[in-house]
TrEMBL record:
Residue ranges of domain Transposase DDE in the record: 4-66
Source organism of this protein record: Streptococcus suis
Pfam families, per the entry: DDE_Tnp_1_6
InterPro entries the record matches: Tnp_DDE_dom (IPR025668)
Protein name from the UniProt record: IS5/IS1182 family transposase
Highest taxon above the source species: Bacteria
Length: 84
């Protein structure tokens, strides 16, 4: 399995994909570890850690949402920016 992953990673076009991953996914986990106390845990048990990680990632998503909303004009938010 690891050999297949390495083969895929070195195919044409995958370098850009992995670069994008480094900029998005790895940055998110780094922020969670550094600023949201996920480097070490005080909780015991899988369910407690799942709760902690879920809340942390939800907070990070809210943070991203606020940043996106700050870039948009206020009238777009009022007109139902959140509606489907």
């Amino acid at each position: 399995y690891l050999e297949q992953c390495e083969d895929i990673r070195h195919q044409r076009g995958m370098k850009e994909l992995y670069q994008h991953r480094k900029e998005t996914i790895e940055r998110l986990f780094g922020t969670a570890k550094e600023y949201h106390n996920l480097r070490y845990t005080r909780e015991k048990g899988k369910s407690k850690m799942e709760d902690k990680i879920g809340l942390t990632l939800a907070c990070l998503n809210l943070k991203k949402l606020v940043k996106r909303m700050a870039r948009r004009p206020f009238y777009l938010v009022q007109m139902g920016w959140f509606q489907h």
